[in-house]
Every structure is written in C-alpha cells, then in structure tokens.
Amino acid sequence: MGGDFSADQKRYLEGFVSGAQLARLRGPGAPAQAVPAEPKGPDAPSLKAMARTEGEGKKLCPEEKAKREENGLDAWPRMEAAAREGVYPKGPDILRWKYHGLFYVAPAQDSFMCRLRMPNGILTHWQVRGLADIAEIHGGGYADVTTRANLQIREIPATDGVILLEKLVDLGLTAKGSGGDNIRNVTGTPTAGIDPQELLDTRPYAKAWHHHILNTRTMYGLPRKFNVAFDGAGQIGALEDTNDIGFQAVEVLDGFGVAPGVWFRLALGGITGHKDFARDTGVILCPEDATKVADAIVRVFIDSGDRTDRKKARLKYVLDAWGFGKFLAAVEERLGAPFTRVPSEAVKPRPEADRMAHLGVRPQKQAGLNWIGIGVPVGRITAGQMRGLADIAQQLGDGDVRLTVWQNLILSGIPDARVAEAKAAIVALGLTAEADVLQAGIVACTGAAGCRFGNADTKATAKAIGAHCGPRVALDTPVNIHVTGCHNSCAQHYIGDIGLIGARVPINDEGDTVDGYTILVGGGFGTDAAIAQELFENVKAEDAPALVERLLSCWTARREGGETFAAF
Ligand code: SF4
C-alpha cells in the first residue's frame, strides 16, 4: 500500500492510532488486561450475589428477579420479534431492552428513546452525518446532547428500534449497556489531546475501558447503574467527581517514594443526586492500569452492592456501610497487589478548569489550530444542523465532533486562517460560536416532555430562563443553572449555582397540580464542590424565569469585587 492517506482514511485510522498508543503504554511485558475468566450460568458473579442475598434471608427487589430470569443481553431475539410485530416491551422487558440502549418512554412519548455510547464523547464527521440520517429516518429528526457527553435519539417507533441499533453498529457505534443496571457512557476531557493545559490525553484510557465493558459479560451484572469518568485536567472539566469512579490526572512530586510524573488519582462514590461527590481515596495508579483497577472495583461492587432496595443499590452505599478502608482492601485482594498511596501534599494542585472554555474559540496546544465551542440551547440539535456541523468539521477542522457534559459541541483542529469562515458557517446553521456567559451554564435533563419521571418540562423552562434573563441580567462570569425533572437528577441540580428540581405544585385544595420546581442555590463542582441547599418550594414553572432573574440581579447588584455566585 503506497501513497498518502486521504483525510477520511486518516480519521478511520485514528482508532488504530489510539490503540497503538495504549499498547505502547501497556509496555511489552505487561498483561493487556489482567481480568479473570468469565464464569457462566449460576457461577456468574451477579447470580451468586443474588443467591447470597437470599441465603441471608433477604428479599430481592423485582428488578433483580427479572435480571435473574433473563439477562437483558440475551433478549435480542425477542427484541427482533417484537420489532417485526411493531410492539413495545412490557413489564420487566422494559428494563431488558435498556441493556441494548432502547428506552420505552411512555407515557411521556409512546416511542423509544435510544441512548448511544461513545468513549470520551468524541465522534467523527461521518458518524455525525450517519446519525443525522438515522435520527431523521427512524426518530424525530433531532438528537439531544446529554450531561454525560452523549447523544440520545427520540421518537423511535416500535418497528424501528432494532434496525436503528443495527445501523449504529454499521457506523462504528453502539448503544449496548447505555441504560439499565449497567456501566454508562464513559466520559473524558472533551479537549483531550488538544488542550494546552491538560496533564494527560484521556482518549486511550476511556476507549480501553469502553471496549473492556463491551466485551466482558460480567460487567453487565451490576446491582444498579455505574458511572466512570477520566479527567485529564484540561480547561473543560469532565465532572469526574460526580461519578462512581473518577480518574483524575495529577502530577506527583518527587520525594514521596514513587516515580514523579503524571498518575491517575482515584476518587470513588460520586452520586450527586444523593448529595455525594466522589471522594479522594489517597490511591494513585499508573494510567495504563485504569481498566484493570476499574474492573476490580466493579467486581467488588457486583459482589457487595445492595440487591434488595434500588434506592440503596449504588456504590456510595457500599462505601458508606464498609468505609473506604475495607472496600479498597477488597479491591486490592482482587487485584492481587496493594495500591500505591501518597499523601495529599505529594500531589501538585491541578490546573483549574475554565467555566467558559466549552464555548467560543480557544487556541489548541497544536500551534495555529483552534477549537470552537458551539452553543446548543438545552442540547437539542436537528438532523440538518448535525449534517452542517459534520461538513464544517470535515472541511475546516480535523474531522472530530466532540461533546461536553455542558450539553454542547466542540469542533477541533480549525486553522487560525479559517476560524472566521467556520464561525460564519456555524451561525448559518442557527447555532452560535460566541461565548455567551448566561447560556454557558444552563443545562436541562429531558424532563416531562420525554421522560415519564419528569414533574416539569425542564427543557422548556431552561429555554425560558435563558430568554427571560438574557436581556435583563448582564453576567460577566458564568452561573451554572441546572434544571432537572425529578430526583434522579440527570441534570445534577445539586451542583448548580442555581438548581431547579421538578415538583408538582398544588394550585387548589382539590389536589390539582401544575409543573413547577423546588429551587436550590449554592452548589458547585471541582475545586468549588458543594451541594446546593433548598431556597424556594412550590415555584410554578411559569414563575421560574422571573425568580431566577431576581436571584441573578440580586447577586450582580450586591456582590463585592469579583465575588462568585457560590461565594455570595
Ligand atoms: Fe427523566 Fe428525572 Fe432524569 Fe429528568 S432527571 S431525565 S425527569 S429521570
């Protein structure tokens, strides 16, 4: 094979390049992934954990019984049959279909939603173009960017769910395990590999973990969902401290008995919907060991997680019950080696994330190239906009389209000389490439318009807040406004400067209610991590924009110096 590769061929080859990079990191003598053989049948770890639970005289919750009856992964032939008949799943099958990424979202919408997975939130231009076609042919003609740097396609008829999943695989994508009691989309630093301040390019590690999950059946036997994120200390955070496992790139100093340089620090137990951030364990690990360590943590969780009460079935509750010492000892036993631990003073303070870096033009570490962060109000993007962005990425950038946890998109590799052209093309799509301080911080979950748990139409409220406050409040620094529809906290209301959680607001004594919110203030993340506190209850949705405006106006009028909203 001779000659140069075309730009498209280079994009295809990127996956191999990442793999080669990881292989080099693993070293010639290191095992690729020291993972136990996969036990089957009653020896499967999840089934043993269920048997042990019952052996202790406890009652499994209905979801565990359904999983014992049939693992969702094995439901594929029945899913094909249901698609041929044009019927949606019922009862426990609703959970099983989620193992393949299909969510039946009635009564909010009588259709499927498909949640994808993409390691580190990065797509190629041809994948985005293919997804636009899929969304148009089999869905509502749009996609939603999620708070896990992922995409969801909605309004998929019963007949189309399976063919949609097949087409994803044709595109080099998958939705497997994106729902149900599984390990969710793997997030990483959105500017990995291009960020001037990053300590580590997270892409190879996110990708390795992604493929490990996909190819390890035991990883589908958890008591409940599980989140893992890799943060390379770039300008845009991955919100890793809101995950069950957060791998944080840190620089370890000389003189503490370990090789100085970049390691991952291990944080565990984040679940902000339950008011907890991942806590530092004092453990550091070589980045190439991340998959092995995450695998061992998940296996200990499979053995020890609560299978009787869904509300207590997350890793946090094992850590609360056992303490970090006992849990880490169990992981070490499984790994067959002790962890490396260093005191906090051995770790250099991490570079701070910039709360505006996901919007507007920023120089990359590659001289003469830039990324452009594109505003996508409440994360919704049409198929036409997706195609347009794919064209810009291909013609003016490096071909990548990167998603962030702030529900927006980034195009990378734009040469200095073509930035103005790219911005004009973005604006022509009805999107913005400007760093709008108010829009930068607004995120919203799916809400009642598309999710049966929603108490309010969160995306409509978030848009209304933006439209109402935009002309009335002059912000010079971002304020994070997180609008979430229920206690599942998909938009993480507890970490917002201002958090809104959907509530049914009573309007008379006869039990009638309307969409509304409880409003919280004072949350934060990263170095400003804090759980927001309730300020107002029973705020009607129609009153929320004006109330948020009052909060923001009060802060801008009375703050002293550069006092942030959180500090106010
Ligand atoms: Fe649905 Fe609740 Fe999640 Fe919003 S927070 S998407 S309403 S489950």
TrEMBL record:
It holds the Pfam family NIR_SIR_ferr. GO terms for molecular function: 4 iron, 4 sulfur cluster binding; heme binding; metal ion binding; oxidoreductase activity. Coiled coil: none annotated. The keyword Translocase does not apply. Residues 180-338, 442-568 form the Nitrite/sulphite reductase 4Fe-4S domain. Signal peptide: none annotated. PROSITE patterns: NIR_SIR (PS00365). It comes from the Bacteria. Residues 51-69 have a biased composition (Basic and acidic residues). Gene3D superfamilies: Sulfite Reductase Hemoprotein, domain 1, Sulfite Reductase Hemoprotein,Domain 2. Belongs to the nitrite and sulfite reductase 4Fe-4S domain family. This is Ferredoxin--nitrite reductase. It comes from Azorhizobium oxalatiphilum.
